[in-house]
């Protein structure tokens, strides 16, 4: 290739004086690939291997005198200057250099560096910010003002400079200077947030008139005697009007709305402007003005663009319009439908609920009361609770309406009392009604009436829910003696309720009367019939453990084991013995497991016995010796599969089902069966071997010859 290029070059030189010819492209005859191929990975690897070794970091040195310090400064400055000289456009090098000088309190040098950097790139925002922050940090206020002035003059569209400048002046207490900066800023017609910042600044100093003038410029900016639109958006007019309304300048606010309507005209009408205008007039109780505004807008704005307008107009008419007109326009159809439903079936309480919801939303209190009275007059004809469950909510809603909406406490009390007189308490009652009445009287700060109502309910128709609600009320009032009496009455009424016994004992425990709590537990476990005895015993045991009465806890476990031999009780006792002490209680824990194993031999549920042995084995694995581990392994049962015959409900055969059974080594009665089972397995194995020999007799001959 080199020869070809040289030949071509010589040829071109020889013909330079004569006719110029285009050189021919060299043709490669041998296009076969080279023997040694070089890949991109190989090139990168070789480049990496030929890199210079990384130099260790320079050792730390301590500067002890002025000469060393000056030498250090000289070297650092030379390094920074070299970096700047290499690439002047990297502003980070300038900033690091200036910050280093600032750290040495060399403010003049830092200023010089910043000024040199600004000569390189005066459009860099970070550079201006760092420069100004350095001056402010070193309390050079005039220098900082000078920098901010230069920054906003050079880059007036960078809002951050204006924000920082005004904030600095305000923090320095220079309100007039900050206002002057804002005025300079507003001449550039900035974004909306800038105007709001200026307005908020004036409002912080109670300058409402100045804020109003800013709003005027914010809406329409006058320059060269020509109205130039700055922010002619509807929301800006609305904000201006709400500002006037907030400061109780209602005439000004109305004038702003009128100007906005006139400004946008009929070509650019916006429903949000008219909704805001109407709500303003509604707050001023000018209902006729509101109606005129809504009608004017609805007549001129297309229907598809006025959904929100129509919705607000409907709400307004519901609140302030004529009742008959509203019923004819909006509610008449639905009201007629509900009237027909309740006439067809007066006991259709769901229809009454819907009707009442409609009536409550758009009519006066007397009409609502009339409908409620019609609804509650339809008493269920049968005195069964399932027929009264929906009906009772009519009374509840009626009482809540009188209390929350109508604010009539006397009528609310009458509603509750009438409902409670209507209920057939000898057959059934509704505890929620008594509790709601009591809670209402408490809200009215009439505690005696609330207690009287709950006492009457317990006397007429005692229920668990009533007792619980009454006790909870007295607990909130910290009337513990009353709580004790109520618990006594409750337990006389329902002595089988374990939860009540537990709560009573917990109350005495909280009050610090341990003996009373223990006596309550003793009375509870002595009851002939309990709904959840296991929960009660567990609570009693936990109580004794909390009191650290371990001997009493053991006695409780023994008393419980006299009543039941459940495996969980034995396991719990063993875990208790283990938790009381460490090494000295291990024999006691093992003794409990041995007693449980002996007691569980006669148990029909073999799974429970297996559960006990597994718990015992886990205990021995953690705390036992090799001998005890071997012993418990010998006690573990063998799991075998069995079949049993099933029968259908009519007595016919339903086939066979397979199940798993456990054979325990300790059960001597099962030993013959085990031997028989082993012999059966051996016989089956011999049968399989004989069948295999009969299928392949040559194999036996070959094996005998070998």
Automatic annotation (TrEMBL):
Residues 92-380, 405-558 form the Pre-mRNA-splicing factor Syf1/CRNKL1-like C-terminal HAT-repeats domain. It is found in: Nucleus speckle. Residues 1-20, 686-706 are annotated as: Disordered. One of its GO terms (cellular component) is nuclear speck. Involved in pre-mRNA splicing process. As a component of the minor spliceosome, involved in the splicing of U12-type introns in pre-mRNAs. Belongs to the crooked-neck family. This is Crooked neck-like protein 1. It comes from Thryothorus ludovicianus (Carolina wren). The lineage of its organism: Eukaryota, Metazoa, Chordata, Craniata, Vertebrata. The gene is Crnkl1.
């Amino acid at each position: 290739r080199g020869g070809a290029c040289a030949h071509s070059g010589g040829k071109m030189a020889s013909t330079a004086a004569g006719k110029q010819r285009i050189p021919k492209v060299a043709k490669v005859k041998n296009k076969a690939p080279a023997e040694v191929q070089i890949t991109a990975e190989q090139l990168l690897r070789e480049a990496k291997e030929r890199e210079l070794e990384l130099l260790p970091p320079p050792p730390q040195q301590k500067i002890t005198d002025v000469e060393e310090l000056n030498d250090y400064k000289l070297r650092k400055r030379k390094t920074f200057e070299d970096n700047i000289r290499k690439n002047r456009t990297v502003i980070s090098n300038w900033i690091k250099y200036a910050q280093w000088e600032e750290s040495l309190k060399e403010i003049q040098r830092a200023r010089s560096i910043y000024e040199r950097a600004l000569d390189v790139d005066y459009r860099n925002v970070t550079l201006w910010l760092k420069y100004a922050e350095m001056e402010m940090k070193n309390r050079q206020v005039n220098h900082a003002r000078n920098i901010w002035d230069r920054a906003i003059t050079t880059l007036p569209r960078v809002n951050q400079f204006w924000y920082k400048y005004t904030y600095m002046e305000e923090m320095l207490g220079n309100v007039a200077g900050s206002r002057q900066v804002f005025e300079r800023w507003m001449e550039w017609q900035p974004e909306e947030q800038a105007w709001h910042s200026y307005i908020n600044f004036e409002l912080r100093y109670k300058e409402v008139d100045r804020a109003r003038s800013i709003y005027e410029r914010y809406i329409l900016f006058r320059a060269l005697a020509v109205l130039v639109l700055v922010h002619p958006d509807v929301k800006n007019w609305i904000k201006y009007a709400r500002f006037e309304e907030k400061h109780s300048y209602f005439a000004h606010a109305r004038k702003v709305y009128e100007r906005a309507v006139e400004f946008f005209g009929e070509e650019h009408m916006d429903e949000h402007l008219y909704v805001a205008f109407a709500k303003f007039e509604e707050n001023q109780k000018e209902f006729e003005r509101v109606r005129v505004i809504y009608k004017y807008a609805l007549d001129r704005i297309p229907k598809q663009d006025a959904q929100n307008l129509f919705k607000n107009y409907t709400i307004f008419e519901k609140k302030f319009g004529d009742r008959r007109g509203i019923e004819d326009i909006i509610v008449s159809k639905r009201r007629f439908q509900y009237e027909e439903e309740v006439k067809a079936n007066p006991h259709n309480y769901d229809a009454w609920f819907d009707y009442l919801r409609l009536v409550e939303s758009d009519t006066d209190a007397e009409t609502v009361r009339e409908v409620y009275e019609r609804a509650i007059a339809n008493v269920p004809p049968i005195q069964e609770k399932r027929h009264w469950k929906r009906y009772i909510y009519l009374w509840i809603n009626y009482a809540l309406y009188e209390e929350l909406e109508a604010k009539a406490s006397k009528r609310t009390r009458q509603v509750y009392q009438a409902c409670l007189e209507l209920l057939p308490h000898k057959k059934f009652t509704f505890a929620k009604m008594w509790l709601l009445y009591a809670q209402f009287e408490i809200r009215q700060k009439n505690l005696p009436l609330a207690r009287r109502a709950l006492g009457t309910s317990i006397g007429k128709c005692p229920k668990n829910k009533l007792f619980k609600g009454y006790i909870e009320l007295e607990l909130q009032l910290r009337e513990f003696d009353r709580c004790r009496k109520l618990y006594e009455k409750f337990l006389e009424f329902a002595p089988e309720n374990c939860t009540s016994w537990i709560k009573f004992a917990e109350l005495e425990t909280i009050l610090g009367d341990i003996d009373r709590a223990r006596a309550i537990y003793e009375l509870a476990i002595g009851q002939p019939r309990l709904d959840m005895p296991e929960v009660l015993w567990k609570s009693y045991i936990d109580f004794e453990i909390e009191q650290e009465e371990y001997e009493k806890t053991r006695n409780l476990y023994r008393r419980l084991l006299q009543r039941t031999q459940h495996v969980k009780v034995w396991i719990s006792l063993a875990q208790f013995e283990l938790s009381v002490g460490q090494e000295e209680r291990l024999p006691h824990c093992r003794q409990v497991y041995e007693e449980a194993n002996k007691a569980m031999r006669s148990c029909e549920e073999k799974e429970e016995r297996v559960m006990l042995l597994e718990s015992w084995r886990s205990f021995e694995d953690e705390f036992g010796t090799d001998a005890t581990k071997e012993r418990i392994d010998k006690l573990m049962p063998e799991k075998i599969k069995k079949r049993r015959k099933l029968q259908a409900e009519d007595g016919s055969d339903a086939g066979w089902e397979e199940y798993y059974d456990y054979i325990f080594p300790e059960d001597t009665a099962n030993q013959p069966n085990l031997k028989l089972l082993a012999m059966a397995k051996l016989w089956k194995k011999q049968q399989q071997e004989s069948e295999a020999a009969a299928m392949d007799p040559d194999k036996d001959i070959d094996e005998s010859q070998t």
